[in-house]
Amino acid sequence: MNGTLILFGVIVILAISSVLLRPLKLGPIRWILGGLSGLVLATLVRHRAFPFLQHDTILSGGKLYPTAQWAPAMGTFLYVGSAIFLLIGIASLLIRQLWTHRLAKADSAGTPKT
After folding, report:
1. Is the pTM here over 0.70, yes or no?
2. Spatial separation of the C-alpha atoms in residues 42 and 75, rounded to whole Å
3. Which residues make beta-bridge pairs with 57?
């Protein structure tokens, strides 16, 4: 029951945030939000908060694996993926900021001072 409530809450939060953040068309912000969402998902998987992880085994790759071993391994995989998304988003923001600063500096250098 507790896992079902957590899953329902996560779905509601993601739905609300997707509607509220729809006007943001910036790519780096989406990478960062994707990374943060992945961190939340990884934490939920690692702590077996989802109802399908409450059973003793899970079918993965055609084989049955104990969820006690599968959940931490999948959580680690999701943490690594989320970190990659966060790094790409932060690097994109920094590159965009530097590029904008450089263009503004070039524009101001080309205009005559009065």
Report:
1. no
2. 5
3. 66
